[in-house]
Amino acid sequence: MLKRLRRRGILHTAETVFNRLVPKWLFRFSVGDVFDLDFQLLQESAGRPLSGDGSMACIEDENARLALREFTWNSVPLESTQDDFGYAVLKTSEVDSPPDPAEGYSYVGGVWAGTGSFSEADLGFRIDLQPSQAWLYCAFVDREARGGGLYKKLLGFVAEDLQSRGYQRLSVIIQPWNKASIHVHRSLSRRRVGRVCVVKLLGFAWVFCSGEISQTKRFTASIEGNPVILMV
């Protein structure tokens, strides 16, 4: 138990338990470090070839995207993610024989890349992205598949695909006490952009930023209708 706590991070575990006990409409406190990931490092760490690896794909079928949202615990409002890219690692048995939609879709890992803007509706802020910038979020890998470099390989595939679409920058926000996630993303980043700190009480939110992150304001009394806008 203690070994597991050290691996995940005591603060990260405490936050997870707290968020399960306290309703999100009542109170939330969140801190995140923003990193710019390095496309070259992503592709080098994944190994090659990537584009020819049939176990990975950018999911376009609507039903498959819905299944990927569920698999990755993606609760970002559907209407704000229509143009986002969903990437998945398919189960080996489905690489050569795509699953029948009626039987459902099976994934081993997945992650999303947002474009245009990214809304943290529950926390009262929205990140406006540059035209050549994508935002990484909602990554998830099956427990049985963790520890073997699968996530890094998926990120390499994501980087290669985004570059082919004209994106030159990939950013991500990670909670500093999530030790495993910080370790992976920091090792694949070219710089730490800054930090975002949010306190939300009922329908009010206070947002504080540091580093190279700018914002339109620090407070909103309408977290959904009038969010704080961030530029990263």
UniProtKB/TrEMBL annotation:
Domain N-acetyltransferase: 66-232
GO MF term set: acyltransferase activity, transferring groups other than amino-acyl groups
Swiss-Prot/TrEMBL keywords: Transferase
CDD domains, per the entry: NAT_SF (cd04301)
Lineage: superkingdom: Bacteria
InterPro entries referenced in this protein's UniProt entry, alphabetically: Acyl_CoA_acyltransferase (IPR016181), GNAT_dom (IPR000182)
Protein name: Acetyltransferase (GNAT) family protein
